[in-house]
Amino acid sequence: MSADLSLIVSKIDEKELAQLALEMGKIYGPTGHEKQIGEFIYGWLKENGFEAVKQPVAGERFNVIGYLRGTGNGLNLIFNGHMDTEFGGPEDIWMIGDRQQLETILTSSWIKGNRIYGLGVINDRGLLATFLIAAKAIKESGTRIKGDLILTAVVGEIGMAPVDEYQGPEYLGKGTGTQHLVNQGVVADYALVAEASRFALTWMENGAGYYKITVKGVGGIYTPHIQRPVPLEENPNAVVRMSKVIQAIEEWALEYEQENRYEFELGVAVPKVNIGAIRGGLPYKPSKTVGMCCLYVDVRIPPNKSPMSVKRDLEGLLEKVGIQGTVDMYMFRRGYEGKGIEVLRDAIEKVHFAFFGEKPPKVASVITSVWRDINIFNQAGIPAITYGPGLALTRDGVEIEDFVKASKLYAAIALEICNQEPKK
Q1: 263 part of the active site
Q2: Catalytic residue among 84, 148, 257, 298
Q3: What's the fold here for domain 3-206+336-418?
Q4: What are residue 116's DSSP bridge partners?
Q5: Mean pLDDT, the chain, as a whole number?
Q6: H helices of 48-155, where?
């Protein structure tokens, strides 16, 4: 370990890091409502002597960008993390299923023993805290780097999209903040997206498409007038007809993920399918058949597959089960396998080996199969890798020591990258 890195690492304080992650985890800020957490991060950057900018995105939503300027003639590196959390509004009861559990998710982050808990901490504010503290340690050590280190806290990474009456800037997600970041010229030679990966690394992740399937029926038939038995596809009630479509999608989903596995250097990505919502009828009028039912489906799409082929697959399912309907796509984000990532990969692997005495673990398919902001950077030609502690899908918390290790690793990676001179 170099003298500069030893000094930097000595300035990473476990209590300060844990407290920052804990405090950030408690701030209200679901997708579409990141203003409060954005103000907090902006204030933290200013208080700690960083050049900081609020970058307007949509409505009251803004990215926060901090700069640790280099002396010149070095590679520039972006650290990227998202401010928004998965859940936040009262309607999320329909996602979680339990009011008390929802309240716990919305308001809680806590430390118990040597672990820190809270979905907002694990995805993704705890990791944001780790690179903020890493940058602060570099700054306070007096170490000068050649290239710029750019700290980006973005809105709208979580998967959301406007549809039906749910319109407006608060419904923009799935990379909205990072896409705006790049569009407005906040770019670098490389980007490290700080997300949970169990300290594995990946430069490939799936794309995603949201599809709305609409099935019509004969609405307004009074309950006593309903005749049975009839085949499901001939039932006047659109909700009943949709039940056959749901069964067909579930059967197709298994075939889809088996046929569209995407293998690359580090492992395999398995594209999954989820039925996320169904709408039909009026809860306060159950005495009438339903004339229209809509199904909302999330399909993960590997880089080598067209979103239109998925649309045709879904249309084929309707035809196969004898149900007339339409399929409309209302959100698409491409998946990418990053190119030109060698310099960043080598730096991460070198630093990881120095700290752990072994190579990074093999990346799990649950990590490569998701969609994250590395796709935005890789699409823009900025080689990007995801690398961080923990696993975003767990509610078992993360060891505080893993956050501390991540902060030290990020500081070391910044030195490795930013002190390299660009190739001519």
Answers
A1: no
A2: 84
A3: Aminopeptidase (3.40.630)
A4: 111, 398
A5: 93
A6: 93-96, 99-107, 119-120, 126-141
Q: pLDDT tens across 342-391, in order?
A: 999 999 999 999 999 999 999 999 899 999 999 999 999 999 999 999 87
Q: What's the pLDDT score for residue 87?
A: 78
Burial per residue of 25-54, b for 16 or more beta-carbon CB atoms within 10 angstroms, e otherwise: bbbebbbbbbbebbebbbebbeeeebebee
Residue type, 199: F
Residue 97 has pLDDT above 80, yes or no: no
95 — pLDDT class (breaks 50, 70, 90): confident
Cis preceding linkage at 286, omega within 30: no
For the stretch 130-170, pLDDT in tens is: 999 999 999 999 999 999 999 999 999 999 999 999 999 99
| 164 catalytically annotated | no
What is the band of 47 on the pLDDT scale with cuts at 50, 70, 90? very high
- Indicate the pairing of strand 190-193 with strand 77-82: parallel
Question: What percent of the residues of the chain are helix, what percent strand, and what percent coil, each to the nearest 5?
Answer: 40, 25, 35
Among the listed residues 4, 34, 148, 157, the single catalytic one is: 157
- Measured at the CA of 216, the angle between CA 210 and CA 218, to 5 degrees, comes to 155
Q: What is the distance between the alpha carbons of residues 41 and 404, in angstroms, rounded to a whole number? A: 19
Q: How far is CA 131 from CA 191, 225, 357, in A?
A: 13, 64, 22
Q: How do residues 104-120 score in pLDDT, each as one tens digit?
A: 665 578 888 899 988 88
Tokens (6 digits) for 404: 């501390």
Could you say which DSSP state residue 195 is in? Answer: -
Tokens read off for 16:
């300060």
Mention every residue, 6+ apart, whose C-beta is less than 8 A from residue 343: 75, 189, 190, 383, 417, 420
| pLDDT exceeds cutoff 80 at 213 | yes
Contact yes or no for 53/152 (Cβ under 8 A): no
* First and final C-alpha spacing in the chain: 29
Enter the pTM of the model: 0.94
- Cα–Cα distance measured from residue 28 to residue 37, given in angstroms and rounded to the nearest whole number: 7
C-alpha dihedral sign at 391, 257, 212, 337 = positive
Take residue 230 and report the two structure tokens written for it: 């009839």
Q: Which of 245, 202, 179, 243 shows the shortest CA–CA distance to 362?
A: 202
Query: Domain boundaries in the chain?
Result: 3-206+336-418, 207-333
- Topology (CATH) of 207-333: Alpha-Beta Plaits (3.30.70)
Q: What is the pLDDT of residue 4?
A: 86
**8 Å CB contact between 298 and 216:** no
- Of 120 and 275, the structure prediction assigns the larger pLDDT to 275
